[in-house]
Design a protein that fits this description.
Helix content: over 70%
Distance between the termini: 24 Å
Mean pLDDT: 89
Largest sheet: none
Number of helices: 7
Structural class: mainly alpha
Radius of gyration: 17 Å
Order of helices and strands: HHHHHHH
Length: about 190
């Protein structure tokens, strides 16, 4: 198996098993109302997290895992609360991009440990790109499974009730994660 394929699989399973990243993704997209807004939010998140993932994996930037993981938890809480208090989400791509930078640093913490052998062999780009593509494929899968629910919610007239309730649950989980990660009660979620 090539490094690309192995790391693609690792990236895919990393995002699918990363409940904190999934909660953030759900909170981000549950309020998107058009394909264009969905595409702008996901694109901003992807570009941002890919950038910090690459920069961190190459050792250009480095954030302490405790800080990164606490900020990831805070991003979940923030986006979920924003879903409750805001009615206009036109600039949501900016929020997705800003927090995507933090999530990329979180992804890189896991990736950097796995890349040590590849770095010593001088082969970094194939596993790095494979990991990132795996993350993207995982996100596409999650959104593909989630979007029919969002579509049904709108068609059935349940959006006004379900979005705030789902967001409250996500905000509560995010809040618990923030406190737990600040005080070292929980390890990283992804």
């Amino acid at each position: 198996m090539s490094d690309f394929t192995a790391f693609l699989r690792i990236g895919f399973t990393h995002i699918i098993g990363g409940y904190d990243h999934l909660l953030f993704l759900i909170a981000l997209v549950i309020v998107t109302r058009t394909w264009r807004s969905l595409l702008s939010v996901i694109s901003a998140f992807t570009i941002a997290h890919s950038t910090t993932l690459i920069l961190s994996a190459l050792g250009i930037i480095s954030l302490a895992p405790a800080i990164t993981e606490s900020l990831i938890a805070a991003s979940i809480t923030y986006v979920a609360i924003e879903n409750i208090v805001r009615k206009n989400y036109e600039g949501r791509w900016i929020v997705a991009g800003a927090f995507g930078l933090i999530h990329g640093a979180g992804f890189s913490g896991h990736l950097t440990n796995l890349l040590k052998n590849s770095l010593e062999g001088g082969a970094i780009w194939s596993p790095l790109i494979g990991f990132n593509v795996g993350i993207e494929l995982g996100q596409i899968l999650v959104i593909s499974l989630l979007y029919p629910f969002i579509w049904w919610m709108r068609k059935a007239g349940k959006e006004e009730v379900l979005v705030p309730e789902i967001s409250r649950v996500i905000a509560a989980i995010g809040g618990v994660l923030v406190v737990g990660r600040i005080f070292g009660l929980f390890s990283e979620g992804a």
